[in-house]
Amino acid sequence: MLGAIPKLNFRDYAFPCKRRLTTRSRSSATGRQDVIRRATARELHAMNQRFTLTVNGKTHTVDADPDMPLLYALRNDIGLNNPHFGCGLAQCGACTVHLDGRPVSSCVTPLCAVGQAKIVTLAGLGTPEKPHPLQTAYIEEQVPQCGYCINGWLMTAAAFLRDKKKPSEAEIKDALSGLKCRCGTHISILKAVKRAAEMMG
What we know:
- This protein is α+β, with helices and mostly antiparallel strands.
- It is built from seven helices and seven strands, in the order H-E-E-H-E-E-H-E-E-E-H-H-H-H.
- Strands 4-3-7-5-6 form a five-stranded mixed beta sheet, sandwiched between helices. A two-stranded antiparallel ribbon has the order 1-2.
- Helix 4 packs across helix 7 (186-200).
């Protein structure tokens, strides 16, 4: 069984420049040399700003570094586990959320770029009583395996099907290109998206 996943710390993964903000000088055999040192915890805290985020229709206040990825605020501060940390490079899709309906990689979207945009995660896509057609189709096609990547596939496909009615198979494949599923459920995913497209008319 996999062990507990540690809390994400954006300073260990992204935007490392904020850890090395101040300089001092020292003497050396070749003369004075500027040395970049890591900012102290107090200095890092002083950089924090207050952000008001609208997530799945609810308002949340987060005090954080402006460069902190949205993903970390959603998981660590707000407690939503739907978007996952996959690669940290916007190359797998596991962290996908909607900003004003547009799918974005939350692992590389800094808080300062969110503005007043409304955020929707997988938890806000549907409800147990009224699931999104894609969620229904995923169950009917028995897509889920480990489930880690599902967030990215569903959120990307939901935005695509909202804007594209009755897409062709080639259009679906193109819209979902770049997403990763290590369990190899791509054929089942394609069937589920087709089924959802039919349900949505």
